[in-house]
Design a protein that fits this description.
Strand 7, helix 6 and strand 8 form a beta-alpha-beta unit. The longest helix has 18 residues. The chain is built from six helices and ten strands. It is an alpha/beta fold. Bound molecules: adenosine-5'-diphosphate and magnesium ion. The site of magnesium ion has 3 residues, from helix 1.
């Protein structure tokens, strides 16, 4: 269970304060497929970053499976981010000079990659329909293919929590459907909790958990 309690977030840009979240309380059950929806600028990305401990709330608290992110040591929080969270960013964040398979392995390259892990990265790319693109670089891939590489990278560590910021924002319907179904398979087969920020309500099933954000507050 992800338990968000009365979380506020004030972004400071110079002397300007932006109240991105104004007291958000919500719960996301473990293993659920969840969406955060709402107008542009309502605080969706801010909330997603806080769930992944990529940023800290200004007040309030977040617990993940009973562990308070705010009271973790820096080392434990780094470990949580690195080992338990798979983040899929809006702009893919691929490295231009690496092949698809090396991009999937990128978080592990500094420590050295055993053959089994390289095989697993290839298998993931094949599962996502990129078996014939393993050695292509990002600029040789379409937007949908790049996004699937980013997804494979997030999934390689078998994260308990997958956070995706508008993963289909710039993709056509066919690619969007493929990405959503890959994430649903992961949720079902690995029991991962998946939280997706989206504008596209047509991908939401009646059984999904939906958090509506408006002006930094939960609307429903
Ligand atoms: P959404 O993802 O719903 O579009 P965001 O969470 O990105 O909304 O942003 C919420 C508000 O906070 C917006 O007004 C945005 O301009 C502001 N904001 C987001 N990130 C920062 C930041 N790093 N510095 C200053 N303001 C920010
Ligand atoms: Mg956003």
């Amino acid at each position: 269970m992800i338990d968000v309690r009365d979380v506020t977030k004030i972004h400071r840009r110079g002397s300007v304060e932006v109240h991105a979240l104004r007291g958000v309380t919500c719960q996301i059950p473990t293993g659920s497929f969840a969406f955060i929806v709402g107008p542009s600028g309502s605080g969706k990305s801010t909330l997603l970053y806080l769930l992944g401990a990529l940023d800290e709330p200004s007040s309030g608290g977040i617990e993940v499976n009973g562990l308070s992110l705010g009271s973790m040591t820096t080392a434990r929080r780094d470990q949580f981010r690195r080992e338990e969270v798979g983040f899929i960013f809006q702009n893919f964040n691929l490295l231009a000079n690496l092949s698809a398979v090396d991009n999937v392995l990128a978080p592990f390259l500094p420590r050295g990659v055993p053959k089994a892990q390289r095989d697993e990265a290839q298998r993931l790319l094949e599962t996502l329909g990129l078996g014939d693109r393993l050695h292509h670089r990002p600029n040789q891939l379409s937007g949908g293919e790049q996004q699937r590489v980013a997804i494979a990278r997030a999934l390689l560590k078998r994260p308990k929590l997958v956070l995706a910021d508008e993963p289909t924002g710039e993709l056509d319907t066919e690619n969007s459907v493929a990405i959503l179904s890959a994430l649903r398979v992961l949720c079902r087969e690995q029991g991962s909790t998946v939280v997706i920020v989206t504008h596209e309500r047509e991908y939401i099933d009646p059984s999904d958990c939906v958090i509506r954000i408006r002006d930094g507050r939960v609307a429903s």
